[in-house]
Design goal:
By secondary structure, the chain is an alpha/beta fold. The chain folds into two domains: 238 residues, Aspartate Aminotransferase, domain 2 (3-Layer(aba) Sandwich); 121 residues, Aspartate Aminotransferase, domain 1, CATH 3.90.1150.10. Helices cover 39% and strands 14% of the residues. It has 13 helices and 14 strands. The strands form four sheets. The chain has an eight-stranded mixed beta sheet with strand order 1-9-8-5-4-2-3-13, sandwiched between helices. A two-stranded antiparallel ribbon has the order 6-7. Strands 10-11 form a two-stranded antiparallel sheet. A hairpin with a 2-residue loop joins β6 and β7. α2 runs antiparallel to α9 and α10 packs parallel to α13.
């Protein structure tokens, strides 16, 4: 594509020397797993988020599963979540042996609806998994308040929301756990799979760390059932340490691109994302909505402009979920929005000229 949906080569070009130095540091040390780079990154990322503890894991789906297991969520218990977030949360819930409870999302931001959650939870609901979708924080204070009244914990899926803040408090620090993906396309991306779980509860942090290493509490002694092998390697930790100081500037550029899109596309029949304030939306993805989604996408493809759909099939309608135990409450907005959403290019290295070209192509597609 002339204008890609994302361009990792551009993203890393400006950091080549720092990343080579980071990798060289690991190679020189001869320590490749569970070493000083991971320990340093865990401390730095915990401080950045405002959490007391950070545990590096292999990927965010593992992180979500480990968080649920650390909370003793298990067979036959329900975990409330949304169905419009690409199966990641659902996969973790099922791997923990629990049952997904799907609740609807808000019309304006496509994040979990507090009203829908309030009416859906029952005494069998053991936890709530809240996704901050597209980089925009959910109504987390209201969701946590509902959870607190029910006496159940919240796990935050922060795969899209690195650096987002509400009321001066980072995503990932409102619930019992925050789980972050560092997949290369994320706002803070590694050179492969990597993730982290943050918490301010020392006991829960120790339990996640043990579960991520076979359930060990000392070498070769497994005391926590449900353990697995899920670790962030030293190279990924070193690369993330080089990138972390630039995250806020990258997020600011993403917000600027999103704001220009919203200004340039206003006044038509598109549903645009809510305007971000200074902190609560880090514009991981810029997602518009239209009943003519496929026509717009085809037009942009002809102009060699990349697009994507995040995500086209709600979790409860996936073929793999046939026959799987679940509870689905009315999810009207979830199902309707899946037919309308379209992701436009939005990454820090996108030029102002390219942004204008995308706006022009979308505008033309609307009037055709």
């Amino acid at each position: 594509m002339r204008i890609p949906i994302n361009d990792l080569k551009r993203a890393d070009a400006a950091l080549t020397s720092e990343m080579f130095a980071a990798v060289q540091r690991v190679l020189t040390s001869g320590w490749y797993v569970l070493g000083p780079e991971l320990e340093a990154f865990e401390a730095e990322f915990a401080e950045y988020c405002g959490a007391a503890h950070c545990v590096g894991v292999a990927n965010c789906t593992d992180g979500l599963e480990l968080a649920l297991r650390a909370l003793d969520i298990g067979p036959a218990q329900e975990v409330a979540t949304v169905a419009n977030a690409g199966m990641y949360g659902t996969t973790a819930i099922l791997r923990a042996g629990a049952v997904p409870l799907y609740v609807d999302v808000d019309q304006h931001d496509l994040n979990m609806s507090p009203d829908a959650l309030r009416t859906a939870i029952t005494p069998n609901t053991a936890a709530i998994l809240v996704t901050h979708l597209y980089g925009r924080m959910a109504r987390i204070r209201e969701l946590v308040a509902i959870a607190d009244r029910a006496g159940i914990p919240v796990v935050e899926d922060c795969a899209h929301s690195h650096g987002a803040q509400r009321e001066g408090r980072h995503s990932g620090t409102w619930g019992a756990f925050g789980c972050f993906s560092f997949y290369p396309t994320k706002n803070l991306g590694a050179l492969g799979d990597a993730a982290a779980v943050v918490t301010s509860d020392a006991g829960l942090a120790r339990k996640v760390r043990a579960l991520g290493q076979y359930g060990w509490t000392s070498k070769y002694r497994s005391t926590h059932p449900g353990g697995k092998n899920s670790r962030m390697d030293e190279i990924q930790a070193a690369v993330l340490r080089a990138k972390l100081p630039r995250l806020d500037a990258w997020n600011a550029r993403r917000r600027a691109i999103a704001a220009r899109y919203s200004a340039g596309l206003a006044g038509g029949d598109l549903l645009l994302p809510p305007a971000a304030d200074e902190s609560d939306d880090v514009a991981h993805l810029y997602v518009i909505r239209s009943r003519r989604r496929d026509h717009i996408r085809q037009t942009l493809c002809m102009e060699e402009i990349g697009t994507d759909i995040h995500y086209p099939v709600p979790d409860h309608l996936q073929p793999s979920m046939r026959g799987v135990p679940m509870r689905v409450t009315p999810v009207t907005v979830t199902e309707q929005s899946a037919r309308e959403i379209l992701t436009l290019p939005c990454f820090p290295e996108l030029t102002a000229e390219e942004v204008e070209q995308v706006i022009g192509a979308v505008s033309i597609s609307i009037v055709r």
